[in-house]
Amino acid sequence: MDLSFRDAVWEDAEFLLSLRNDPSVWPHCIQARPVGRREHLEWFKDVLQRDDVKIFILLQDRVSIGQVRYDFKQDGVYVSISLCVDHQGQGFGVQALKLTGQKIFSLPNVMVLKALIKENNKGSLRCFENAGFCCVDRERNGNEYFMIMELRKAS
Ligand SMILES: CC(C)(COP(=O)(O)OP(=O)(O)OC[C@H]1O[C@@H](n2cnc3c(N)ncnc32)[C@H](O)[C@@H]1OP(=O)(O)O)[C@@H](O)C(=O)NCCC(=O)NCCS
């Protein structure tokens, strides 16, 4: 399994849109709906100019197979991840969280990674646990419950 990653660039816009709107992905997003092309392109253009969001493209043999996003917030850096459907369930998720997490922890002042995961997303919860995250809380948002997962920087 030869997994690597690189920073997202503007040319990844269409790949990220089709990944975001894949039926195996969008129901697990916090905003659980497909997004329109124009909305996505505006969002992505903005993201590429910001320094509080970082998107990595996951590559296997130089082919894009998914993405990991890190949102830098006051209380920690929030992680979200999605893989193309034909690359799910093969261990890439755990590896991707470990690889990209090392990079984020190497940045100054990053002490904790966090993830908000829907309680019914058992595969994702397991993936984050296997990457070293622990569940620290459970939060309600409308009709849904989210698990708050955390990984602290090794001292
Ligand atoms: C969530 C996701 C990133 C996980 O990555 P992955 O590479 O598919 O997962 P892995 O192959 O690393 O498997 C992780 C673990 O979950 C388990 N698992 C997978 N699906 C499961 C399910 N439906 N129920 C319970 N466990 C499940 C696997 O058996 C594995 O555990 P194990 O190694 O201890 O046996 C990926 O499936 C994905 O992109 N899903 C769609 C988008 C999504 O849900 N993103 C997360 C939003 S928070």
Description:
The chain is an alpha+beta fold and about 160 residues long. It has one domain (about 5-150): Aminopeptidase. The chain has 4 helices and 7 strands. A 7-stranded mixed β-sheet has the order 1-2-3-4-5-7-6, with helices on both faces. The longest helix is centred in the middle third of the chain and has 14 residues, at about 90-105. The mean pLDDT is about 95. Coenzyme A binds near residues 94 and 121. Coenzyme A (COA) binds near residues 82 and 88.
Chain-wise SSE layout:
Blueprint: E1 3-7, H1 13-20, H2 37-49, E2 53-60, E3 63-73, E4 76-83, H3 92-105, E5 112-118, H4 122-130, E6 134-141, E7 144-152
The chain binds coenzyme A.
Mean pLDDT: 96
State the secondary-structure class: alpha+beta
Beta-strand residue percentage: 35-45%
| Beta-strand segment tally | 7
Q: Any idea of the CATH class?
A: Alpha Beta
Q: What's the CATH topology name?
A: Aminopeptidase
- Dominant shape: globular
The profile of the biggest β sheet is: 7 strands, mixed
Helix % is 25-40%
